């Protein structure tokens, strides 16, 4: 859509990888961070390459995709500019970042196979680590690159998720919508 922006772009990367690059001055990505682009073969997490067929299908130059590292690999140290801006030392290590699905699993503590967590945010999902890749196209559920370099996480997304609660609050609240605490109190009254 914007050929001038595309022509001027050095790296096509996800926001989490951009932040990692800003901290380390080194471009990198992982199977997990590139998940939404569908440019890696997620059946083989040990292959740190983009899938040539998928890259060709979308018409990108593979040389403009950030090099793939393993989840948790050290990318480098904090670059001087970031160290100064964030009051960090330049010997602090920067590791590959994780997307929201992975951050939610880590934050919930559900990190072992089949330990389940529920995330409620603008979108929502139920997920858990699993030991193998599997996809259920009919139910829109897939095992995607997980919390380690040899595991997977269940991915299923309800796009409106908890945003639906905000909508409900707005349309039923009249001139002064109920607070989320008040909605929680009302929900507790339900049999």
TrEMBL record:
Transferase in keyword set: yes
Ranges annotated as spanning the membrane: none
Record-linked InterPro entries: ATPase_NBD, FGGY_Carb_Kinase
GO molecular function: kinase activity
Keywords associated with the record: Kinase, Transferase
Keyword Transferase: yes
Name of the molecule in the record: Carbohydrate kinase FGGY
Species whose genome carries this gene: mine drainage metagenome
């Amino acid at each position: 859509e914007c050929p001038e922006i595309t022509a001027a772009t050095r790296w096509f990367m996800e926001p989490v990888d951009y932040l990692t690059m800003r901290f380390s001055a080194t471009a990198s990505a992982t199977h997990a961070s590139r998940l939404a682009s569908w440019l890696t073969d997620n059946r083989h997490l040990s292959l740190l390459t983009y899938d040539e067929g998928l890259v060709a299908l979308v018409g990108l130059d593979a040389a403009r995709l950030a090099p793939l590292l393993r989840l948790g690999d050290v990318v480098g140290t904090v670059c001087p500019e970031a160290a100064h801006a964030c009051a960090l030392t330049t010997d602090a290590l920067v590791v590959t970042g994780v997307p929201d699905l992975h951050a939610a699993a880590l934050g919930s503590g559900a990190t072992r196979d089949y330990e389940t967590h529920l995330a409620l945010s603008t979108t929502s999902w139920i997920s858990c680590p699993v030991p193998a890749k599997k996809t259920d196209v009919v139910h829109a559920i897939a095992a995607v690159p997980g919390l380690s370099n040899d595991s997977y996480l269940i991915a299923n997304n309800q796009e409106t998720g908890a945003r639906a609660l905000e909508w409900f609050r707005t349309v039923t609240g009249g001139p002064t919508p109920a607070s989320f605490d008040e909605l929680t109190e009302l929900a507790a009254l339900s049999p």
